[in-house]
Amino acid sequence: MKKYYLFFALLCSVSVSFGQTLEDDRLSLVALYNATNGDDWTNKTGWNPSGAPGDNPCGWYGVTCEGGRVTELNLRKNATFGYLPVEIGNLSALEVLNLNANDPGDLQGWGGISGVIPAELGNLTNLEYLDLGGNRFTGSIPSSLGNLLNLTFLDISYKAFDFGFDPVGELGGAIPIELGNLINLKYLDLSYQNLSGNLPGELGNLTALEFMKLGGNIFEGTIPASFGNFTNLEVLDLHYFGDFVRGYGSYGALHGPIPDLSGLPTTAKVYISNHSFTFDGMDTNVSRLASYSPQALLPLSVSPAFPLPYIISVDAGGLETGYPTYSNNNTYKFFENGTLIATLVGDISGQIFVNGGATYKVEVTNSLVPGLTLYSEEVFIELGSMPVTLVSFTAKNENSNNIITWRTTSEVNNSGFEIEKSADMKKFIRIGFVDGHGSSEELQTYSITDTEVWPITYYRLKQIDHNGKFEYSRIISIKRNRSFLHLYPNPASNEFFVSDFQKNDNAVIYDLRGKVLLNQKLTSGKPISTTQLPNGIYIVTVGNETTRIVIEK
After folding, report:
1. Residue 143 backbone dihedrals phi, psi, to 5 degrees
2. CA distance 34 to 45
3. Is residue 104 scored above 80 in pLDDT?
4. How many Cβ atoms are within 10 Å of 394's Cβ, its own excluded?
């Protein structure tokens, strides 16, 4: 008899617990109904928000139950307005939540749910499918969504009713790094919102992803290298929604280099148009890129030069071969007042001398990236000359140092010269200052020694007047007599050594299309193994040095 009594007591206990749990679900659904103007829903069959405690919600429209709990709530295209109540986080058995707003063009449902996405959604740890797309959320994506480890589908995209009116959503802020926890996710759509900041590298943990749609937002920075981990990917959409949406002629701030995407399936489609990329990484990943044109205008660099007044150049990127050839697949076309004045092919410097007094621009194409032309901004350059007569400016390499020498025949109000150096003719650093002779009509000779030299070092003078005005000289270059990077034996069979490297240097081996084949930290006396490389020619980079090695077995 005691056994039967115990069984009956347990049964009553389970029944009470079951009733309370389902009642909690009912109350959460009622809160949602009231918060989203349920009286105006397209379909509210069975919903009874004023019902009594204990009413069963499992027959309500869009509600599916299993095991006495609400496991699915599907109110897609049901004219839900208002906001999401925090009580939605109490539907702890929910596996599917679909509140996608009505399709664009359906006036009845335009607008959808607004307000913030409640952090309490992170309590629904049984969720496998979460679709909040098409609504008008504000605020940011709650980091608590990173708790939903069972999610395979997540859509918080915005789909405009009319592209001429509020074409993008108002959900802002950065993508929470916690979304990188959703390792079962196959579909992620955060497109056409107002998300900003850098793309988190943690998203690279989502190796099950088949679709990742982040286009139409205002991200900046680079594409994380971890995005090359998506071995199941079909679509990666990062395009920027410019022109009439965010302003005519506007471009996104994502820039290069594009990381190695060779780990993606050969059928993957990557969209990166309307950003600020150059050919860096584009030429080696073009087989994965479905859309990459257009890109933002390139800055046009202007540097005074002697005896001609100016050098104009652009940095268009692209795979570069190493010393001694230093070329790439770019073709540069230089225009003066709209007329083509020069064409350079394979010249990585992308520069010419001009006299000034005109408007200049550059167009660049790359033979490996069909259908894309990079355009520079247009710049008007005035005629000009230095306030000193500089008759020579030279450099020579001697005993591992560079000796820079220059001479003037006249100087006016000359305070002195700053000496600047660069490894790429783009970013210069100051290495010293030499006093001038004020005003002089006599031959003056100046010299300075640079003890930290590079394989190729570029120099220019910054002549400064006593009143603070300044002018730049032309740029000169000098090669180091001995190459820093020495590989032996070359040709190599199964291994080779690197001499004279710096501490913490890595040796990176590329094939001739720029794909990284090996990246190894260098250790004194330890060779680089090439047993996995077939016979051929490879590019090796150590620090800022690049050369070739031949593998023959």
Report:
1. -65, -20
2. 15
3. no
4. 13
List of E strands, 423-544:
428-440, 444-450, 456-465, 470-472, 476-479, 486-488, 495-499, 506-510, 516-521, 528-529, 536-542
pLDDT class of 389 with cuts at 50, 70, 90: confident
Q: Do the domains 486-551 and 301-381 match in fold?
A: yes
Lookup result for tokens 């539907």: 91
Which is higher by pLDDT, 244 or 52? 52
Strands (E), 175-300: 187-189, 196-198, 211-213, 218-221, 235-237, 253-254, 269-271, 289-291
Closest to 56 (Cα-Cα) out of 70, 43, 40: 70
Lowest average pLDDT, out of 11-20, 169-178, 328-337, 396-405, goes to 11-20
Helix, strand, coil percentages for the chain (3-state, nearest 5): 15, 35, 50
Contact in structure between 389 and 418 (CB atoms under 8 Å): no
Do the beta carbons of residue 439 and residue 484 sit within 8 Å?
no
Provide the residue type at 157 as one letter.
S
pLDDT over 60 at 17, yes or no: no
Average per-residue pLDDT for the chain: 86
CATH homologous superfamily of 486-551 equals: Immunoglobulins (2.60.40.10)
> Domain coordinates of the chain in residue numbers?
14-291, 301-381, 388-479, 486-551
Q: How far is CA 33 from each of CA 75, 92, 124, 504, rounded to the nearest angstrom?
A: 11, 18, 19, 62
Read off φ and ψ for residue 25, nearest 5 degrees.
-60, -45
Q: How far is CA 239 from CA 39, 107, 255, in A?
A: 39, 28, 12
Q: Is the pLDDT of residue 6 over 50?
A: no
- Name the CA radius of gyration of the chain, rounded: 32
**The two three-digit tokens of residue 96, written as one number:** 């599917």
Question: Residue 414, class by beta-carbon neighbours within 10 Å (0-12 exposed, 13-18 middle, 19+ buried)?
Answer: buried
**Residues 492-533: pLDDT tens digits?**
999 998 876 666 778 888 876 667 888 888 888 889 999 989
| pLDDT of res. 441 | 86
Choices 1.10.860, 2.60.40, 1.20.1070, 2.60.120: CATH for 301-381: 2.60.40
Q: With b meaning 16 or more CB within 10 Å and e meaning fewer, what string describes 363-386?
A: bbbbebbeebebbbeebebeeeeb
Cis peptide bond prior to 265, omega within 30° of 0: no
Superfamily of domain 14-291: Ribonuclease Inhibitor (3.80.10.10)
pLDDT digits (tens, 9 = 90+) for 196-219: 999 999 999 999 999 999 999 999
Domain 388-479: homologous superfamily in CATH: Immunoglobulins (2.60.40.10)
